[in-house]
Amino acid sequence: MERTDELLIERYIQQDGELRRYVEDHRKLEAALEDFNKRIYLTPEEQIEKKKLQKLKLASKDRIYAILSKYRQSA
User: Fold this and answer.
1) How many domains does the chain have?
2) 20 and 62 in contact (C-beta within 8 Å)?
3) What is the DSSP secondary-structure string of the chain?
4) Nearest C-alpha neighbor of 18 from the set 72, 75, 68
5) How do the pLDDT tens digits run along the chain, 75 residues long?
6) What range defines the domain where residue 21 resides?
7) 32 Cβ neighbours under 8 A, 6+ residues apart
8) Rounded CA gap, 75 and 71, in Å?
9) Is the pTM here over 0.90, yes or no?
């Protein structure tokens, strides 16, 4: 994320529960994906799980950007 996005998140995360939830989800998914990335080999089931997590992470990032867009427009 860009620095301006990080600043907006820091500014609004305490008062916006939805933003906080999506940021927390995004961080958890990123940590889970890091675990997969550390492995040399993934079973087919793990590959499917990794793809699922990547899609969920992208969806949470899209939602974060939508919320931040709302704050940018109101500023």
Assistant:
1) 1
2) no
3) --HHHHHHHHHHTTT-HHHHHHHHHHHHHHHHHHHHHH-S---HHHHHHHHHHHHHHHHHHHHHHHHHHHHHHH-
4) 68
5) 788 889 999 999 999 999 999 999 999 999 999 999 999 999 999 999 999 999 999 999 999 999 999 988 886
6) 3-74
7) 53
8) 6
9) no
